[in-house]
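Design job #97: recover the sequence.
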C-alpha cells in the first residue's frame, strides 16, 4: 500500500490528550507523526512525589518510543514546536518542517504566575521533571543548612515552607511535605527542633478545594491540620523576594512570612505555543476556544484537546485542566478523525465527570465517586490503587507500589539525595 497517500495526522504533545489520540488511531488508515519536546510521557499527577523525594522521575515518566514500539503507522519526533502555520498547514520544529492534513494540538499547559514576576523569579513551580528535582534538591539542602545554622530567626526561615494555591496540587504538596518532615527528616536530623518547622498553605479565596463539595473541603482542612499544615485562606500573595512572603491586606495573621521556600501551584495557562496559532484564545488562561467537536472554528482540520482547549461545561464553567478531560477529549478526537475520513457527521464532546480525588498523605485522602463522598483511609486506598493503575508500564507500577509500601511500613522516602549544588 502507498502509505504516503494516507491522511497525515500530526499530533503536538505526548501528554494525556495526545497519547490517547495516537493510540486510538493505531489501526486507522492514517499516517501519524507525534512530536514532543521530551522523549517521554509524564504522569504529572505524581510530580509532587518526586519533589518530596518519594519517587524517582523515571518511575512517573515513560519513553514515548517504547510505548509506540509496535504501532506501525506512527513516527515519533522529539523537538520543540516553534511555529504553527494553520493557513499553510505545517509546523516548524527546531530544525525541520512538518506538513499535515489534520493537526491535533495537545500541547498542554504551563504555570500561570498571573504576571507576578517576584514569584516567577524566586519561587518554585511544579510542572516538569526538572522543576520537581529542583524542589527536591532545595528542600533537602535547606535541612542541611538549617542543621548547622546557629541564628534562630535564620533557621526558622530556612525551615518555613510556603505552598501557594489551595487546589488539589497545593493540598497534596503541602500534605506530603509535612509528612516528609514529620516522619522522615525528623529521624535524619534528630537534634533539630521540629517545632521550628512550618508548612503553610496559602489560598487567596475563602476556601481550599473550591471545586469540591463542602464536606470534603472541611475534611481536607481537618486532615491538613492533623499533619500540622497551617491553612491560611483569604491570604493573597503580593510579593516574594526569595526570603520573605508579603501578603495583601485582609490576610489572616502577619502580613509577612519569612520563608526560604515558596512553591507556587496557584495557576495554569495554555502552553506558550498556543499563542502562535493566531486563533481566538481566552484571556488569562490563553486556552484556545474550540467548537463542541473540539475543532477550531474556521480551521476544521485542527483539533485542540486537553489543557490547551477551552470549552464550557454543561454548568457554564470552563472544563477543568485535568487528565480525565484530556483523555476523554482524546477519545472523541480519535472518533472524529475517523468520522471525517468516512465522511460522517462529527460527534460533540460532553465531559463525563468520573469524580474527584486528592490525597493529603498517609491514610488521608478525599474522594467523591458515584455521588458519594469519602475521606480518610478508604479514599486513600482508592487513590493509591487508581494512581498505580493509571501509570504507564508494568515496571513503573511495580516500582511505585514497592516504593509506597516501603514508605508506608518503614517511614522512609527513597530518594533523599541532593544531586545538584
Ligand atoms: C503537579 C500536577 C498535579 C496534577 N494532578 C492531577 C490529578 O491529580 N488529576 C488530574 O486529572 N490531573 C492532574 N493534573 C493535570 C493534568 O496533568 C493535566 O490536565 C494533563 O496533563 C493535561 O493533558 P494534556 O494532554 O493537555 O497536556 P500534557 O499532559 O501537559 O502534555 C502536553 C505535552 O506537550 C508537550 N509540549 C508542549 N509544548 C510543546 C512544544 N512547543 N513543542 C513540543 N512539545 C510541546 C509537553 O512536553 C507535554 O509532553 C496535574 C498537573 C500537575 C502539573
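Job complete. Output follows.
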Amino acid at each position: 500500500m502507498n502509505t504516503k497517500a494516507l491522511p497525515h495526522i500530526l499530533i503536538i504533545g505526548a501528554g494525556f490528550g495526545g497519547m490517547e489520540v495516537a493510540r486510538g488511531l493505531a489501526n486507522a488508515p492514517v499516517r501519524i507523526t507525534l512530536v514532543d519536546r521530551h522523549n517521554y510521557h509524564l504522569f504529572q499527577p505524581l510530580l509532587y512525589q518526586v519533589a518530596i523525594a518519594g519517587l524517582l522521575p523515571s518511575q512517573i515518566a515513560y519513553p514515548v518510543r517504547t510505548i509506540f514500539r509496535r504501532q506501525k503507522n506512527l513516527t515519533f519526533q522529539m523537538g520543540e514546536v516553534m511555529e504553527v502555520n494553520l493557513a499553510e498547514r505545517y509546523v516548524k520544529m527546531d530544525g525541520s518542517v512538518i506538513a499535515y492534513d489534520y493537526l491535533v494540538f495537545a500541547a498542554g499547559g504551563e504555570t500561570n504566575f498571573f504576571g507576578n514576576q517576584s514569584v516567577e523569579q524566586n519561587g518554585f513551580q511544579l510542572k516538569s521533571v526538572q522543576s520537581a528535582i529542583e524542589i527536591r534538591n532545595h528542600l533537602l539542602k535547606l535541612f542541611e543548612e538549617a542543621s548547622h545554622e546557629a541564628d534562630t530567626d535564620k533557621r526558622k526561615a530556612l525551615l518555613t515552607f510556603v505552598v501557594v494555591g489551595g487546589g488539589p496540587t497545593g493540598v497534596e504538596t503541602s500534605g506530603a511535605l509535612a509528612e516528609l518532615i514529620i516522619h522522615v527528616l525528623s529521624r535524619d536530623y534528630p537534634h533539630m527542633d521540629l517545632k521550628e518547622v512550618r508548612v503553610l498553605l496559602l489560598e487567596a479565596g475563602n476556601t481550599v478545594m473550591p471545586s469540591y463539595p463542602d464536606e470534603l473541603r472541611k475534611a481536607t482542612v481537618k486532615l491538613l491540620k492533623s499533619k500540622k499544615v497551617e491553612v491560611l485562606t483569604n491570604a493573597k500573595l503580593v510579593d516574594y523576594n526569595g526570603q520573605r512572603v508579603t501578603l495583601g491586606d485582609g490576610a489572616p495573621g502577619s502580613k509577612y512570612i519569612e520563608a526560604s521556600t515558596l512553591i507556587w501551584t496557584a495557576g495554569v495557562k495554555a502552553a506558550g505555543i498556543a499563542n502562535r496559532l493566531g486563533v481566538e484564545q481566552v484571556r488569562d488562561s490563553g486556552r484556545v476556544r474550540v467548537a463542541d467537536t473540539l475543532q477550531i472554528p474556521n480551521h476544521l482540520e485542527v483539533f485542540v484537546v486537553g489543557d490547551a482547549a477551552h470549552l464550557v461545561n454543561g454548568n457554564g464553567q470552563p472544563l477543568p485542566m485535568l487528565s480525565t478531560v484530556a483523555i476523554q477529549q482524546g477519545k472523541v478526537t480519535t472518533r472524529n478523525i475517523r468520522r471525517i475520513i468516512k465522511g460522517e457527521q462529527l460527534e460533540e464532546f460532553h465531559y463525563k465527570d468520573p469524580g474527584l480525588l486528592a490525597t493529603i498523605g498517609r491514610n488521608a485522602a478525599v474522594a467523591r465517586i458515584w455521588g458519594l463522598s469519602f475521606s480518610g483511609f478508604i479514599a486513600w486506598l482508592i487513590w493509591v490503587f487508581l494512581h498505580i493503575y493509571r501509570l504507564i508500564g508494568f515496571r513503573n507500577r511495580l516500582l511505585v507500589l514497592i516504593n509506597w509500601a516501603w514508605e508506608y511500613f518503614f517511614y522512609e522516602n527513597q530518594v533523599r539525595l541532593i544531586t545538584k549544588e
